[in-house]
């Protein structure tokens, strides 16, 4: 005997009480299987999935796209099926095809049982349209129109905007620059990248070198690993490095916990795991919380020079940039070297210019002489 089950908003994470419905992946009347994703919710930190509590049919939807919901809210009903095997799987796929191509089902020739449309019917119609029939997207593409579209800003981007503006309004942000010769690190990476990947199952990138160099600099300049809280300075005796990652939903900054306790392989694996979770919108609130210092690599997009903005309440952020061959003076001679501009933005309320410059020079020295800090010299 079937039952009517509530579809509820799951726990959203610590300090988060509400979310916005981003989209429903199923429509009323669609069959679903247990644990299948029904809808996606977005908080100001992460995207969460609402799963089917059982196999059956989506009976009703109460909270449509754009609705603000709270933990425990019932956003729909699911009619449980007596057996998952009895639930057909064709009707979701057919509706999606019709919707994606803005097709009226009445114009598609149905060949299924009792005159029902099949997926094959829709595909055949798309591949072999009747004479004189053009699809809506083709008509729109043929018109020379100046179109505009208004879409709501995601909660994630709204929150990011608020935090960035907060950093500008609150912190006294200054940026110092330097450049680093990447020759030694590139030679070291080229020498060991194959054996490194074979042994550890992850590629050896440049980020692990900059994380290691930043850790060395943070230990020498502890104020960069601190933050201001009202009238107090909070000095962090641990090192959680936030790594800026470009994800489908926008720029996010997940955190690599206890980075000082990881070797190069652990750092690379940790970053790869965070990037994978970001791509699939699987980052948890814990992944995005905390962080004592941030590293952002705009060089992967071709950026040559920029001044990063602080990730509040942190007091420092390192900006990496594109590696580019440039002529430099080496022992009185001009040589072509792979150079990278570095930028360090910092909160001048807490960190003096001398400390900031010393911090960046430390990173430069670690990268140009990786053997020294790897051997703790």
Task: Present the secondary structure layout.
Layout (H helix, E strand, L loop, with lengths): L3 E5 L9 E7 L6 E2 L4 E6 L4 E5 L4 E6 L6 E3 L3 E7 L9 H11 L18 H9 L8 H7 L12 H16 L2 E9 L1 H18 L6 H14 L5 E4 L2 E4 L5 E3 L1 E3 L2 E3 L2 E2 L7 H16 L5 H4 L4 E5 L18 E5 L3 E7 L2 E15 L5 H16 L1 H5 L3
Parallel strand pairs: 12-16, 16-17
Antiparallel strand pairs: 1-8, 2-4, 2-7, 3-6, 4-5, 6-8, 9-19, 10-11, 12-15, 13-14, 17-19, 18-19
Helix pairs in contact: 6-7, 6-9
Looking at this structure, what is the CATH superfamily of the largest domain?
Chloramphenicol acetyltransferase-like domain
CATH class of the largest domain: Alpha Beta
Overall pLDDT score: 85
Distance between the termini: 73 Å
Tell me the structural class: alpha+beta
At CATH's second level, what is the architecture of the largest domain?
A: 2-Layer Sandwich
Number of strands: 19
Helix content: 25-40%
Rg result = 27 Å
Ranges where pLDDT stays below 50 over 5 or more residues in a row are 84-90, 138-142
Strand portion, in percent? 25-35%
Work out the helix count.
10
Provide the CATH topology of the largest domain: Chloramphenicol Acetyltransferase
Helix and strand succession? Answer: EEEEEEEEHHHHEHHEEEEEEHHEEEEHH
Main sheet makeup: 7 strands, mixed
How many distinct folded domains? Answer: 2
Shape: elongated
């Amino acid at each position: 005997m079937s039952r009517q089950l509530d579809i509820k908003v799951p726990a959203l994470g610590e300090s988060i009480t509400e979310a916005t419905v981003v989209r429903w992946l199923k429509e009323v009347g669609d069959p679903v299987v247990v644990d299948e994703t029904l809808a996606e919710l977005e908080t100001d930190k992460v995207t969460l999935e609402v799963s089917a509590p059982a196999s059956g049919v989506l009976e009703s939807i109460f909270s449509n796209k754009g609705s603000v919901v709270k933990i425990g809210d019932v956003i729909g009903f699911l009619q449980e099926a007596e057996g998952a095997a009895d639930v057909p799987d064709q009707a979701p796929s057919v509706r999606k095809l019709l919707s994606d191509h803005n097709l009226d089902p009445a114009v598609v020739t149905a060949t299924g049982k009792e005159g029902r449309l099949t997926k094959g019917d829709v595909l055949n119609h798309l591949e072999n349209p009747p004479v004189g029939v053009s699809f809506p997207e083709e008509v729109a593409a043929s018109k020379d129109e100046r179109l505009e579209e208004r879409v709501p800003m995601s909660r994630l981007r709204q929150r990011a905007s608020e935090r960035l503006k907060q950093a500008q309004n609150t912190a006294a942000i200054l940026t110092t620059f330097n450049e680093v010769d990447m020759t030694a690190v590139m030679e070291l990476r080229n020498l060991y990248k194959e054996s490194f990947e074979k042994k550890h199952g992850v590629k050896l990138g440049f980020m692990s070198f900059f994380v290691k160099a930043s850790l060395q600099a943070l230990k020498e300049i502890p104020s960069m690993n601190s933050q201001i809280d009202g009238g107090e300075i909070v000095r962090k005796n641990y090192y959680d490095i936030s790594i800026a990652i470009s994800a489908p939903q926008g720029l996010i900054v997940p955190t690599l916990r206890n980075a000082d306790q990881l070797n190069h392989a652990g750092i690379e694996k940790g970053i790869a795991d965070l990037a994978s979770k970001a791509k699939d919108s699987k980052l948890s609130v814990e992944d995005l919380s905390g962080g004592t210092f941030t590293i952002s690599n705009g060089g992967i997009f071709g950026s040559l020079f920029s001044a990063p903005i602080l990730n509040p309440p942190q007091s420092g952020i390192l900006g990496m940039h594109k590696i580019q061959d440039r002529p430099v003076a080496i022992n009185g001679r001009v040589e072509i070297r792979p150079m990278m501009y570095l930028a360090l933005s910092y909160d001048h309320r807490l960190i003096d210019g001398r400390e900031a410059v010393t911090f960046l020079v430390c990173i430069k020295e670690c990268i140009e002489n990786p053997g020294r800090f790897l051997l703790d010299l």
